[in-house]
Write a structure and sequence with these properties.
By secondary structure, the chain is an all-alpha fold. It is 68% helix and 0% strand. Helix 4 runs antiparallel to helix 5.
Amino acid sequence: MKDNHLEDQIVPRTTIRMTKEQFQKVNFLAKEMKKTVPKVFLDLLDRRTPQVTLLNSDNAGKIKTELNRIGNNINQIARKVNSGEAVLGSSFEEFKEQLNVLYNYMVRTSGLR
């Protein structure tokens, strides 16, 4: 007589083909979630949204530094505007570029896009 409990635990294996970028994303998710890659997929099948920590001790310092730089630029622009001094377009372009750097860093370190 077969042990039905054992049969319930044994399931067919499957292989998933993906791009290198997709492979990196799923491995990042698994690492951040402290789960195996198959468990990430099973959670998605069970409609459980993967929870990823976007801000951690590794990237918090870098993000804080960038935000401080951006804040300083905003303050300098505000001081010039409030004093009636002309604000050059390059000030805004520099500010925009810093925001872009921060955004790209956050996207890159989150592994999501």
